[in-house]
Amino acid sequence: MRYEYAADLQRVAEDMCDLLFPHVQTKSIMCFRSYGTSSTRTIARCHTLDKIMQKALGRGSFYVLEFLTEHFEKQSVEDKLKTILHELMHIPKTFGGGFKHHDFVTHRNVDKYYSAYIKKKNEIKKNQTTF
Question: What is the pTM of this model?
């Protein structure tokens, strides 16, 4: 596997956090593209430092969103945005190093968050003044 920091996905994730997930400390998340997966069904993953690693490293929680290029890049723009939302939804409000599971991170909830994100983006665009 090869990993590459994904500045473009980072900007999108931070924008989503600003609009939908204010509990996410954007300085403590990073987005990466990975290359060379043998996975056949996974599009993205959310990783974290568990409590013992946080303690050992003397730092707070940290989340890494990994996007498996072979699968992620084949998606439409809408599905890419939904995938980013899906991974961000795994981060709990406590931002403590745990995860929200798939009983919360469902297609239905991802669709709700996606609709809310698009609505907020459109409101921002509508309210911007051009000169």
Answer: 0.91
- Distance, in Å, from the CA atom of 122 to the CA atom of 23, rounded to the nearest integer, reads 22
> Which domains are present in the chain?
2-125 (3.30.2010)
pLDDT tens string, the chain, 131 residues long: the values are 999 999 999 999 999 999 999 999 999 999 999 999 888 889 999 999 888 888 899 988 899 999 999 999 999 999 999 999 999 999 999 888 888 888 899 999 999 999 999 999 999 888 876 66
- How far, in Å, CA of 10 to CA of 29, rounded? 8
Instruction: Please report the DSSP string for 83-120 in residue order.
Output: HHHHHHHTS-TT-SS----TTTS-HHHHHHHHHHHHHH
